[in-house]
Write a structure and sequence with these properties.
The chain is of the alpha/beta class and 487 residues long. It contains 14 helices and 22 strands. The protein has a six-stranded parallel β-sheet, with helices on both faces.
Length: 487
């Protein structure tokens, strides 16, 4: 079946009737698979404001119930939604199933969280006073998501935002609007089952850049959570800051793995294949730089070249495919601009841009190595000392993810220490990609500094209020200040 036929089948099954001026193509064969209607950001913001008035007063555990229902629906719809993600993003079905699982996992997390939005009690310095902090809902949240994780990133943000008491407006990538339509079909059903959620609580606004910009500039939006390139974040950050809004940025990565002489090379090789070539090199956590000790570099590179040559590149719907197509011609051109004639195009499905993952040995980190090219290119650098390897890891402007392969405790602890990796994520004996939802996800420097998903990332979706309560009959001032009118 063609991607267009398959997409039509899924839309029919989910009873989604979309049409409009925005055409979307499948990277599998480059042909159109559907159309959606461009949304109205102004109207969406107004509806979100009205929804916020009501939703913020619903008890958080009840808000969690909505997310629980969403998780139930996702479990049921997982195979179909994953199929749509594959058709639209080109990632292999295994990875799409993983992406939907990530949504289910964050639903479970958020349901638990809905009973754990804890604040502190703080010792007051004044007699008969009590101090505490409360976490209150923040306001309408806009989620701008990218093509490579067309549904999971929405779920990371939306489930937390909902239990925290906020309405959500979703502006998905214009490259993956149908996956968003499928999710919204589920959301509508879930809202019906839930019963009394306010109108406009969860909205989808399709469109291109101008639609995103309108939402970014709208002072009714309390938080803009944006995932995408550093270039995009450079625009979004200052624009939201100008109106004193809040941002959560999850931008480019340029992730490295250090392989030490003591490493289990078999383990490292498998991890490197998944992290560097998986998702056709189009994850923000993709491994782009391999920093190998000079004593084992020849051996490791030879193993990797053999493995990269064997990996099946092709139609992501086929079970034996490991590497699907690049998202579009622009991605192919970006890869070609680095590799020139050495780029190996694979003739898999007519109209799609399929490439074999590339390994490029380099002697230092030039401007190409320092930037994030969203394609499967693995640069290999050699090092002599662990300090030098860590310096190379940290030399790039981005700071998302990193990892080390070693069986030497001192090396791994140094890598995780304050003098080690400067990234938001640092792993040992696994690759830099494929994080679980339980941890905070995000990175430093040009990655934008935001944290999404697990741990205490929920705080970004709430406003903190410090309360001091006097239950005595005197009025002692803080810092012992005296401020009385003479008797
Ligand atoms: C992204 O590429 O934007 O850690 C997100 C990972 C995935 C998420 C990637 N869980 O690779």
């Amino acid at each position: 079946m063609s991607p267009a036929e398959e997409a039509a089948g899924i839309l029919a099954l989910a009873r989604i009737d979309c049409g409009g001026s925005l055409v979307t193509c499948s990277p599998i064969d480059g042909k159109p698979i559907g159309r959606v209607t461009v949304g109205d950001p102004d109207r969406a913001a107004a509806r979100a404001v009205a929804a916020f008035e009501k939703w913020r007063t619903v008890p958080a555990p009840r808000r969690g119930e909505l997310v629980r229902l969403l998780g139930e629906w996702l479990r049921e719809f997982k195979p179909l939604l994953a199929k749509m993600v594959t058709l639209e993003s080109g990632k292999i079905l295994q990875e799409s199933l993983g992406e939907v699982q990530e949504m289910i996992d964050i639903c479970d997390f958020a349901v638990g969280l809905s009973r754990q939005l804890y604040g502190l009690t703080i010792a007051s310095e004044r007699p008969n006073h009590r101090m505490m902090e409360q976490w209150h809902p923040l306001g309408p949240v806009v989620v701008i998501s990218a093509f490579n994780f067309p549904v999971a990133v929405w779920a990371w943000n939306t489930t937390l935002a909902l239990v925290c008491g906020n309405p959500v407006i979703w502006k998905p990538s214009e490259k993956t609007p149908l996956s968003a339509e499928c999710v919204m079909a589920g959301v509508r059903r879930v809202l019906e089952r839930f019963g009394d959620a306010p109108d406009g609580l969860i909205q989808l606004v399709q469109g291109e850049r101008d639609i995103g910009e309108a939402l970014v500039d709208d002072s009714r939006i309390a938080l803009v959570s944006a995932t995408g390139s550093t270039a995009m974040g450079r625009l979004v950050g200052p624009r939201v800051a100008k109106r004193f809004g809040r941002v959560l940025l999850e931008l480019g990565g340029n992730n490295a793995t250090i392989v030490c002489p003591s490493a289990d090379l078999e383990l490292a090789t498998r991890a490197i294949l998944f992290s560097a070539a998986g998702t056709a090199g189009q994850r923000c956590t993709t491994l782009r730089r391999l920093i190998v000790h000079e004593s084992i570099a020849d051996d490791l590179v030879a193993r990797l070249r053999a493995l990269f040559a064997q990996a099946t590149v092709g139609d992501p719907r086929q079970p034996d495919t490991l590497i699907g197509p690049l998202i579009d011609e622009a991605a192919f051109d970006a890869m070609k601009s680095i590799l020139g004639d050495k780029v190996e195009r694979v003739e898999a499905v007519d109209g799609g841009f399929y490439v074999r993952p590339a390994i490029l040995e380099v002697s230092g980190q030039d401007s190409n190595v320092l930037k994030e090219t969203f394609a499967p290119i693995l640069y290999v650098l050699r090092y002599a000392s662990i300090e030098q390897a860590i310096a190379l890891n940290n030399e790039v402007p981005q700071g998302l993810s990193s990892s080390i392969f070693t069986n030497d405790l001192k090396k791994s602890e140094l890598f995780l220490s304050a003098a080690g990796s400067d990234c938001g994520i640092a792993n040992v004996n696994i690759g830099p990609s494929g994080a679980e939802i339980g941890g905070a996800f995000g990175g430093e420097k040009e990655t934008g500094g935001g944290r999404e998903s697990g741990s205490d990332s929920w705080r970004a979706y709430m406003r903190r209020q410090t309360n001091t309560i006097n239950y005595g009959s005197d009025l002692p001032l803080a810092q012992g200040i005296r401020f009385d009118v003479a008797p």
